[in-house]
Amino acid sequence: MSDHRAAARHQTLRTGIVEFDNGAGSTVSVPCTIRDVSGTGARLELNSSAWVADEFTLVFSNGLRKSCRVAWRKERLFGAAFADGYASLTEQAAMMTADEQARHRLGIGARVRSARESRGYTQAQLAERLSVTAAFVAEAEQGGVDIPLYQLMRIADLLMVGLDGLVAGPVPDEVDAA
């Protein structure tokens, strides 16, 4: 879970709704502010002091519904991890603006590059093991293209890093300054 808390998040400050079963068969809807979001979850602030169940549905203002679980809590602020692990590209597009998506791709690319370099692979070597071109690896590391989830899983295995770390870990310093 600490990888989710350390995730490079993209500030949104959008409104949303947290929905959950109250245990008596009825659904409770609690307004919230979606403070930031990434491909793996969101940081939410409740607009009231209501209790929230450990498993809930986050409803975005555009109608997108995402099953979540509580990753951490601190008073009215809490982290929501997406129950299915990672938001699809379509879901991310609905959750994040184009600029937020570009920053997220750049962060993933920087983490892939950092992991690749720490393992001593060249872009060409990684590309060969992934059955893609070196140009694709180079463009992905620069944030120019989305890396499909199945490729991210393969990269994580090859470079012996966690998938959460690639998708939502801390961004290397040289990218933070950009």
Describe the structure in brief.
The chain is α+β, with helices and mostly antiparallel strands. Helices cover 39% and strands 29% of the residues. It contains eight helices and six strands.
Could you explain the architecture of this structure?
The protein is of the alpha+beta class and 178 residues long. The protein has two domains: 2-82, Beta Barrel (Thrombin, subunit H), CATH 2.40.10; 97-170, lambda repressor-like DNA-binding domains (434 Repressor (Amino-terminal Domain)). Helices cover 39% and strands 29% of the residues. It is built from eight helices and six strands. The chain has helices at 2-5, 89-95, 98-118, 123-130, 134-141, 149-159, 163-168, 173-176; strands at residues 10-21, 27-37, 41-46, 55-60, 65-74, 77-82. A six-stranded antiparallel beta barrel has the order 1-2-3-6-5-4. The radius of gyration is 17 Å and the shape is elongated.
In the sheet with the most strands, the strands line up as 1-2-3-6-5-4
Please work out how many helical segments DSSP would assign: 8
Distance between the termini: 27 Å
Helix proportion: 25-40%
Portion in strands: 25-35%
Global mean pLDDT: 82
What is the number of independent domains? 2
Shape: elongated
